Each structure stands twice: as C-alpha cells, then as structure tokens.
Amino acid sequence: MKILKKDYKRGFVELIPENVGDLYAIYRILKSGDKVRATTSRRIRRKDDDTRADAGERVKMTLGIEVEEFAFHGFGDNLRFKGKVIDGPEDLISLGTYHTIALSLMEKIQITKFEWTAMERKVLEEVEKSSMLAQIVIITIEDNNACIALVTQFSVKILSEFSPSVTRKFSDVKQHTSEMGLFFNDVLQLLQDTNEQYSPQTIILAGPGFTPENFLAYLKNRDQKIASKTIFVHSSMGGRGGLKEVLSQKLPEKIAKEQRVAYEFRLLDEVFKRIGQETGDVTYGFENVKNALTVGAVETLLISDDQLGIEDLKKRKEIDNLVEINSEMRGKTVLMSVYHDSGEQLSKLGGIAALLRYALRE
Predict the structure, then answer these.
(1) What is the pLDDT of residues 102-152, one digit of tens each?
(2) Spatial separation of the C-alpha atoms in residues 124 and 36, rounded to whole Å
C-alpha cells in the first residue's frame, strides 16, 4: 500500500491500495460516519433524457461521501462505500443525495475520521511495515485434486481449486499415466497464469505421497523459472486441508518473516498450547487481559479485528485503551483477521488474549 499523506491531527489519511490485502485493511478501519473521497462515476441525466433507469451519461468525477454502509468483496477485488454526498461538482450532482463508490486496486482514496483510534492506527502501521513483503503462492496437490492459494499480509485467497477425474493406477497404468499428464499440464498452466499475475517470490508445493514430487519433476522439465522458486514440503493431505497444514508450519513464516497469516497461526497455536498445558503464562477475555496489563505481564496482545467494529462504543474505547497501555509498556499488539481460522478462533475466546512474560497464579 502506498500511503501518500497521513495527518492524524487533521484526521485524514490518503492512500492507494495495491493488493487485495490493502483493500481488506481499509475495510478493517472503516466505520459508519467516516468520510471518504475517491474517483467514481455517476449517471447524469440531461433535460432531454427519457425516464428509463439507464438513461443519461456516465460521468467520471471525484466525490466525497459520509459512509453509512460498506462491504468488502475479496474475490472481486473491490470495496464498496454507500452514503450521502458531502462534496463534489455541484453543477453535476446534488449534495445530500446517495451514492456508492466502488474502490478498486491502484485507485487513490482519502479517509477522514473524527478520531483515529490506536487500533486503527495500528492497522495502518502494520500495512506500512508489510507493504514491501513478497506474496507467497501455495499449491497443494494429490492424485485427484489441486488447490492454488495466494497468501498476502492480511488474507488467504483461494485462486483455483479443482478435482479432475483420474483413473486409479492399479486398474489401468497406461491410462492413469496419460490422465495424470493432462492433470499436471492443467495445473502448470494455472501456476504460470498465477505467477504472471502476482509475481510471488516463493511458491510452496505440498501434498501427500509421490504426486507432488512427480509434479515438481514435471515442472522442472517444462518451466525452470517457476521451478527455481518452488519449495516442496510434505503434507498429509491436499486441498484446503493441506493448505491449513502448510500455514500452521513455520516455513511460510521463515520465507516471509512477518507474513501475516502464518504469523497469526503460530501465535494462536501458542495460545492454545499454553492453555492446554496450564502454564499460567497466557490469559484471555477482556478483564483477565486488563489485569495482566495492570501488572506489566503482557508480552503479546492478540485482538481479533471484529473488535474494531463492535457497536458498544464504551467497550470499543476500553479495548482501544488496552492497546494504548500495551504500547506504553512496550508490549507487542497483533490484530488478527477473522477472515481466516486464527482470527475466527480468537473471536470465540472473546476476541482478546495475551501471551505473558511470566506466569500469573491466583
């Protein structure tokens, strides 16, 4: 993400989302009442236009609206805002009318808030730190399925998933070999398209048995460029299950350091490990975490990002204060996305947990 201007005192940030993770980051910090300004198009009717709904000319313009509704469409790579127009060319549009802005990648947006909370500033801080990190493509493959996913700073996006019909090897070896060749060719073409579109630094290939190893050999014979940045790891299954298995390992983390998804999986694994072992150096729930912060015991504060948008303003302010206190005490704060399993599981723990510097006993 390119952050062009940032002035929290005047309440605005100007930025350009460069990938779907950036769009999701904007979605995380938005709330009703915020003001956004971006380029959009609106149908303008002239006096001689007929009464049809699609009558009139679509005109490109820059509008500012006060947000009332917003929605993130990760697979469509756009973010939609709906609200009343508060700024724009008055010769073309009436202020106070409603409009929907669809923000896409590489389009500039200005966001203005009455107050930027500590959690919202934290999201932008993480995006700034992560903006230069490479994306990772993970492909899981076995005899009868393949799954290709893009791992970005804030999300996991399934790019392709399919299950071809392949004859069992022991029933007809020749036919099986022929069908596997066609299967590998299809996977290679998808991988080449993915590589061209996203230019990942690393591709992780995983799966059970000999199928992924055979595919890697096939890849080396047909596309050395992609093969040279492909790392093979064993997983007990293919498909989405294999994807989760790879993310729960340390490999993606080593490859991309602070890559968000792998990092969050590791942190939540540690939370549940300590809970299960009753080590005393972990806690969860608002009051327990607050008490741990009071005595300076928090090393890493984990918060699910659905806490950014809770309707109880008093509770939201209290959580924001925890982030401020943790920052003052030099603790680490990690906002975890509910768009994948780690954030979702944290949400079930009340949306907040902490890994502690030392054990706390009653």
Answers:
(1) 998 889 999 999 999 888 888 888 777 665 455 789 999 988 788 999 886
(2) 16
Q: What is the pLDDT of residues 269-310, one digit of tens each?
A: 999 999 999 999 999 999 999 999 999 999 999 988 778 767
What is the domain-level CATH number for residue 180?
3.30.420.60
Instruction: Tell me, yes or no, whether 171 lies in a domain.
Output: yes
Query: What range defines the domain where residue 325 resides?
Result: 267-356
Q: Tell which residue, 189, 188, 199, has the closest CA to residue 152.
A: 199
- The position carrying tokens 């579109």 is 197
DSSP E strands, 153-259: 156-162, 202-207, 230-234
Greatest Cα pair distance in the chain = 78
Please, what sign has the CA dihedral across residues 114, 116, 117, 123? positive
Establish if 332 belongs to a structural domain: yes
Residues in the chain: 362
- Note whether residue 30 is domain-resident: yes
Q: Which long-range contacts (CB under 8 A, 24 or more apart) does 320-328 make?
A: 320/117, 320/118, 320/119, 321/118, 322/286, 322/289, 322/290, 322/293, 322/352, 323/117, 323/118, 323/119, 323/122, 324/118, 325/293, 326/293, 326/298, 326/301, 327/118
pLDDT for 360 beyond 80: yes
Helix (H) or strand (E) holding 16: strand 12-16
- DSSP annotation of 297 reads -
pTM: 0.52
Three-state DSSP state, 156: strand
Q: CB atoms < 10 A from the CB of 335, how many?
A: 24
Give the burial string for 24-38 (b: 16+ CB within 10 Å, else e).
bbbbbbbeeebbbbb
Lowest-confidence pick of 36-40, 218-222, 303-307, 346-350: 303-307
> Average pLDDT over the chain, rounded to whole?
83
Same domain for 99 and 142, yes or no, is no
Domain boundary at 223, 256, 289, which?
256
Question: Residues 78, 101: one domain?
Answer: yes
